[in-house]
Amino acid sequence: MKLGRNDPCPCGSGKKYKRCCMSNAGKINAQVMDDFEQIVAMNPNITLDELNLVAQSRMAQRNSQPLDDFCGLSPTQMSNWMYAGLADLKEVDVKVPDDLAASPVMSYLKLILDEAMANGGSFKATAKGNLPANLVKQASEQLPTFAVAVYETEPSISDFTGSNEDKFRALHYTRVLAEVAGIIYRRSGRYHVKKDAQKRYLNQGISAFFMPMLEAAIYQYNWAYFGVYDVSEDLSQFWVFMLWRLQTHRSVDQLNQELAIAFPALLDGMPESFHASKQETLSNLVESRFVTRFLQFWGFITLDPRRYQDGQRIERIVNLQPLLRQTFTFLL
Q: What pLDDT shows up at residue 237?
């Protein structure tokens, strides 16, 4: 039976074939079929069971071979990076840094927890359900301590300052992650810190929540949130690959090219308009959803927000922060 584009992918990811392995399957299948034809020609009496065993062995060999389209990764390694949880990732070690003060997300979470702990485990939300003004002010005052401060000039357009939570994206992002991670919840007009979270905070400090917050940001948070592009393509499954490439060469432009080559079906899913090509749309999504609202909010990198200077386009090169290498170590 022929596998259709909308059928479940045979790799077991649960995604549609066209959104998963289809782009590279043609190359691998053609190679495997050539092998089978040679095997049958040389062994005309081979049984179906024997052929199945050979097929499994050959597919395993093929899947373990590095591919140029994957920047030297094998399909097996790429599959692990796309679908495994933090604890099961291969060839990458994820650790909790000793000092989280340089991370905006974790610093804002600490403010939220301290505010609650100082008031018996909860504090009053605004009528709109946002964090209170005094907490927003404290968070805004932390901007000079972050590496990204070198690029912040106008508080009115800053992701890292604001007069209220609605105008303060990094803080709002942190509050949403804390709720998704099960650290805080809102009830009866107040934000509460869960009892077990209070105990962990007293015993371990803010470090206790680094991994839960990171897992929530990667696997549960909707990366399209805050988005201005009406594109449903999920970039979160490619986060390890993208992070590896940025650690290697620091170029957002090169990352976008590598992502399009590795996953052409992803590029096919991008809308094209008079104002932007498919590649440009993908590039905008990568920069806004991954580079800015994930890596920069966490304090892993900084990126000059200017795109042009003196009429010339500025190359999109990220500045890797110490927190990134303290958290992620690639073992390839």
A: 92
